[in-house]
């Protein structure tokens, strides 16, 4: 007999690049607005936010020297991964 356990949260992952050069942006902040959930990008511009309760969110990417970008109505489902790609422009 084996037991299967369903999860209770989802995951958000993606990448942030410079819109002009397509180079990855290290240290960009990714935040699920109106929550305490967020992450920073790695050297290749990738990020992952774990344990997000299911629901609909606005996800903001911001970095000093760049304009922020916001995705609205991002749906996070239980046991699934939602992927976003951000291309930030220099300000």
Radius of gyration: 14 Å
Structural class: mainly beta
Strand order of the largest sheet: 3-2-5-6
Main sheet overview: 4 strands, antiparallel
Poorly predicted segments = none
Q: What this model shows, in words?
A:
This protein has no helices and 7 strands. 0% of the residues lie in helices and 52% in strands. The strands form 2 sheets. The chain has a 4-stranded antiparallel β-sheet with strand order 3-2-5-6, with no helix packed on it. It has a 3-stranded mixed β-sheet with strand order 4-1-7, with no helix packed on it. It is elongated, with a radius of gyration of 14 Å. It is mainly β. The model has no long low-confidence stretch (mean pLDDT 95). The termini are far apart. Strand 2 and strand 3 form a beta hairpin. It has strands at residues 10-18, 29-32, 38-40, 46-52, 55-62, 69-76, 81-88.
List the helices and strands and how they pair.
Blueprint: E1 10-18, E2 29-32, E3 38-40, E4 46-52, E5 55-62, E6 69-76, E7 81-88
Parallel strand pairs: 1-7
Antiparallel strand pairs: 1-4, 2-3, 2-5, 5-6
Distinctive features:
single chain; 91 residues; mainly beta; 4-stranded antiparallel sheet; 3-stranded mixed sheet; 7 strands; elongated
Short description:
With 91 residues, the protein is an all-beta fold.
